[in-house]
Amino acid sequence: MTLIRNEDLIQSVADALQYISYYHPPDFIAALHEAWQHEQSPVARDALAQILANSRLCAEGKRPICQDTGIVTVFLEVGMDVRWQGGMSLADMVNEGVRRAYRLPDNVLRASILEDPVGARRNTGDNTPAVIHVRLVAGASVHVRLAAKGGGSENKARLAMLNPGDSLADWVIETLPGMGAGWCPPGMLGIGVGGTAEQAALLAKEALMGAIDIHEVRRRGPRDRKEQLRLEIVDRANALGIGAQGLGGLTTVLDAKILDYPTHAASLPVAMIPNCAATRHAHFTLDGSGAAALRPPSLAQWPTLDWDAAAGSRKVDLERVTRQEIASWKPGETLLLSGRLLTARDAAHKRLLAMLEAGEPLPEGVDFQGRFVYYVGPVDPVRDEVIGPAGPTTATRMDQYSDALLAHTGVLGMIGKAERGPAGIEAIRRHKAVYLIAVGGAAYLVSKAIRAARVVAFADLGMEAVHEFEVEDMPVTVAVDSSGESVHQTGPAFWREKIIEQRALEVT
After folding, report:
1. Cβ–Cβ < 8 Å for 156, 25
2. Phi/psi at 240 (nearest 5 deg)?
3. What is the 8-class DSSP label of residue 460?
4. What is the pTM of this model?
5. By C-alpha distance, which of 103, 75, 77 is closest to 14?
6. Percent of all residues in the chain with a pLDDT value above 70, rounded to a whole number
7. Alpha helices in 41-121, H assignment, sequence order
8. What Å distances lie between residue 277 and 76, 435, 441, CA to CA?
9. 3-state DSSP call for residue 402?
């Protein structure tokens, strides 16, 4: 019989969530570095370099890798010979650990969890509750696996009930392009197969807790059908040419992990959940000897890069930029922005458009004329920061608002991550605006370009309030130009053909 104090689980959860907020797993860094070394697409290589540079900055500064510090998912395996010292439930212990982690003054993490999801959607303020899965197992210890999963990648989860004779690999490859780039590739695919619909989804999420080891599988050869499928899926996925951030390139998927479970003879449930470029998970065991201790990784695991943001980039003065100037920008071109811009996400867009439709003036300080709007919900600042990590959010969620905003406010352009949908692209084309992307998964790096920040409207929305940022040399890429051409369409198409040509040459 093992006695484990409530406090030991609470503090271990808190410490682990802090740890994964700023330390990437070593296997992810190694795989990403290898992808950067082999990448031939200049714009994708630049994006990979920013993610790697951001990762090292976060490890050094102990600040979040991504502004979306995630919804916490916890898998608990509790030994049946464990007794607890204290009167708290497992859920209460885990949630108290989450609360401590997200409110830690030295490294505040963004609270993103909303209660009453189909009603008022009120922020709980401390990122609780976590999503908790518990198994009772033999033994006298508690094994914990936890992750902080961002909304951009979680929103790309897919579930299907295939026929028993259908091909799993075909389904993955047919499904992947439709997921867009909002999951911030390259990352890992978690795939669950079998059981029932909910079991497949659970297996997919659990698969993401594993380490990236596809290179080892390739080197020694597959041991079973699942490993054969993993190799097939990774190779076929990367042949799609989607590339880093969906810009077109050689690496879209770093690994694919598969977990399965026996299923009904008439069924083949499958689920796929991607992990983004802010892959965050940790594992620890409690045996009654105290709280878990996670050892900080050596900074030597991070590569030294020759990345220079200014190399080949056009400098843009946001105080003087004109519609004529933005008309000369081309998809895939890199820019460095300096000057003032405004921020707005889903909730702010909804309020702003309601005010415009009602004929009301916008709040004082919210003047979009000739300005850019950045889709971001930043982390609160600590120490001497003007703002915390402030990377972009997925832009397609704002497509429904774009036409009205462009028509009524004089906005020149928008900044977000991933592709725009047909409605967003048409609005950009109609109003001769532009859409730029910052790199998802490089939030702390982006924040280093923000010299001043202040809330100008809707402070009650918390991280979704409208801010004014003053930026200096903020790195972005032109994703949709004023004619409506999208690099998220042209880039992957070009690299898909290029990969086919390269493989044909290798065969001959």
Report:
1. no
2. -70, -20
3. G
4. 0.94
5. 103
6. 100
7. 42-61, 90-102
8. 25, 22, 5
9. helix
CA-wise closest residue to 65 among 75, 56, 74: 56
* pLDDT tens-digit series, residues 378-388: 999 999 999 99
* Rg, Å, the chain Cα set: 23
Q: Which residue, among 116, 117, 91, 22, has the nearest Cα to 63 in the 3D structure? A: 22
Amino acid at 250: L
- pLDDT bin (cut points 50, 70, 90) of residue 505 is confident
Confidence of residue 309 (pLDDT cuts 50, 70, 90): confident
Helix (H, G, I), strand (E, B) or coil at 165: coil
C-beta atoms surrounding 162 within 10 Å: 15
SS3 letters across 306-348: CCCCCCCCEEEECCCCCHHHHCCCCCCCEEEEEEEEEECCHHH
* 212 in Cβ contact with 254 (< 8 Å): yes
Residue 382 is predicted with a pLDDT of: 93
Q: Give CA–CA dist 283/208, Å, rounded.
A: 12
Q: What is the pLDDT of residue 1?
A: 87
Peptide bond into 492 cis (omega under 30): no
Q: How far is 329 from 321, CA to CA, in rounded Å? A: 12
d(CA 36, CA 83): 48
> How many CB atoms are located within 10 Å of the residue 89 CB?
11
CA angle 465, 398, 341 (to 5 degrees): 50
Q: Give me the pLDDT at residue 210, please.
A: 95
Domain boundaries along the sequence of the chain: 151-277, 314-491
Q: Which two tokens stand for residue 297?
A: 């990784």
- CA 277/CA 31 separation, integer angstroms: 11
Distance CA 447, CA 286 (A): 37
Determine the pLDDT at residue 190: 98
262 preceded by a cis bond (ω within 30 of 0): no
CATH class of the domain whose range is 314-491 = alpha beta
Task: Give the integer Cα–Cα distance in Å for 212 and 202.
Answer: 19
Q: Cβ atoms within 10 A of the Cβ of 27, count?
A: 18
Angle between helices 168-175 and 225-238 (to 10 degrees): 30
Q: Whole-angstrom Cα distance, residue 113 to residue 456? A: 23
How do 434-437 and 450-457 pair as beta strands?
unpaired
Residue 255 CB partners (closer than 8 Å, separation 6+): 31, 188, 189, 212, 213, 214, 230, 234
Q: Which helix (H) or strand (E) segment is 199 a member of? A: helix 197-207
Residues in the chain: 508
Cβ 48 vs Cβ 60: under 8 Å: no
Handedness of CA 373, 376, 379, 384 (dihedral sign): negative
